[in-house]
Structure of Flagellar hook-basal body complex protein FliE:
Amino acid sequence: MTDFSAIRSSYVEAAYSKTVQGETRGPKAAGPAPKDFSQMVGDAASQAVESVRSGDQMAIKGLTGQGSLQEVVQATMAMEQTVQVSVALRDKLVEAYQEVMRMPV
């Protein structure tokens, strides 16, 4: 087996220093920076609110005769699924919180 210091090259050291400094590396890291959990939850909540709002707007268009029946049904079903997922997520978060509160310190 060879010694690690013998196979270390200037290219490897440069790549290592870039990753240590937090710079992007390779084609995989070319996208946006990863979000933390609170940002993901906030984005999901804002998308859910937007879905419900668009469903409400489409329902109003359907009632006034400006939207087709198919569009109204699709928007209503998307809105219903969003509400169901949001309620299930809320229930899981409350359940997890209760479990944490039951843990002995």
The chain has four helices and no strands. The two ends are 49 Å apart (CA to CA).
